[in-house]
Amino acid sequence: MEMHITYIPGYIRMISMIACATLIENWSLVTIQNAKGCLTRHVHGRVEIEGRYSTALVEIDLNTLTVETSPDRMDELIGPPGRDDDSQWLMGLAHTARGYRLIKNHLWSIMRLLRAMEKRHA
Questions:
Q1: CA triplet 57, 104, 50: central angle to 5 degrees?
Q2: Amino acid 110: pLDDT
Q3: What is the predicted pLDDT for the residue at 32?
Q4: Half-sphere exposure of 103 (CA within 13 A, CB side)
Q5: Is the C-alpha dihedral spanning 18, 114, 108, 110 positive or negative?
Q6: What is the four-CA torsion angle of 77, 78, 84, 86, rounded to 10 degrees?
Q7: What DSSP line would sit under 76-114, residue for residue?
Q8: Which of 22, 29, 43, 98 could staple 54 via S-S, CB 3.0–4.6 A?
Q9: pTM for the predicted model, two decimal places
């Protein structure tokens, strides 16, 4: 577990414990429209030997390659973004069952952004 400090307007600080529970490889960021028409962002990719599809993201940090899906859950993105067939298939099942619609896969946008960040820091 690592200590995570969250600054909240009107308060000095709130400290919570966050477990980095999942290491996600071959990851990609997608925007989804749910059955009510709300847009949410999700990460999908490979965790150990299987595909994984996250719940809606609360926050994504491309500097540290971490995503927060709830106030007490933070996952780490490993390596460059990529494509994982298992997680794509899992995402398709979830969308069909829940009436979700894929709005945009941000894979290429994220790859360009990360390349630009690397050049700037080099």
A1: 60
A2: 87
A3: 92
A4: 13
A5: positive
A6: -70
A7: EE-SS----HHHHHHHHHHHHHHT-EEEEE-HHHHHHHH
A8: 43
A9: 0.75
